[in-house]
């Protein structure tokens, strides 16, 4: 019995002028169909019968104490990496990283974080950002910058408020328990 050789058709690829290498490789490796499917599987693959409530593998993995949200964040980073490979502007990539960071950070809070993780749907958000960025000119990114400025302000506030609260508690403890008064000069 003779073995027939396998013939593979090779199609040439014509790239638009000025396309960078990371964009060229990323377009093949991370195509729209695969990324849409990944975001769907991670965020809304399952539906509770009789409702419109959907959740994905990310929400289930997030239930594993300690490591679940980290694993979910690693899976979510695939879409962010794809955005970088496909030439998405850096401000949009930063916004995508912020979406994943919010999901992972809040997701680590017991019970509340698991519900937030299911509701936030960072992967669907990031896929929508990727699509929007690739389907429109690069000049209108004010929404992304505004989001990042707002997020930075909130993060700074969240970092400063606990310090102020601890200082206020310390002043009152010293005053009430030890009779020491602490005054700050203006």
TrEMBL record:
Matches recorded under InterPro entries: DUF4112
Provenance organism: Granulicella arctica
UniProt keywords, alphabetically: Membrane, Transmembrane, Transmembrane helix
Name of the protein this chain belongs to: DUF4112 domain-containing protein
Transmembrane segment boundaries: 60-85, 97-116, 145-171
């Amino acid at each position: 019995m003779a073995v027939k050789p396998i013939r593979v058709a090779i199609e040439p690829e014509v790239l638009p002028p000025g396309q960078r290498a990371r964009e060229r490789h990323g377009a093949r490796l991370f195509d729209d169909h695969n990324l849409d499917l990944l975001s769907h599987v991670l965020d809304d693959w399952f539906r509770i019968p009789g409702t419109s409530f959907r959740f994905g593998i990310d929400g289930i993995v997030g239930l594993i104490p300690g490591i679940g949200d980290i694993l979910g964040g690693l899976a979510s980073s695939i879409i962010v990496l794809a955005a970088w490979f496909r030439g998405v502007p850096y401000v949009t990539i930063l916004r995508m990283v912020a979406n994943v960071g919010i999901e992972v950070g809040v997701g680590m809070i017991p019970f509340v974080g698991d519900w937030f993780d299911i509701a936030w749907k960072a992967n669907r958000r990031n896929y929508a950002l990727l699509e929007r960025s690739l389907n429109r000119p690069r000049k209108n990114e004010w929404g992304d910058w505004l989001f990042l400025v707002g997020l930075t302000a909130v993060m700074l506030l969240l970092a400063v408020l606990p310090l102020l609260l601890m200082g206020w508690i310390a002043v009152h403890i010293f005053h009430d328990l030890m009779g020491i008064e602490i005054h700050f000069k203006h």
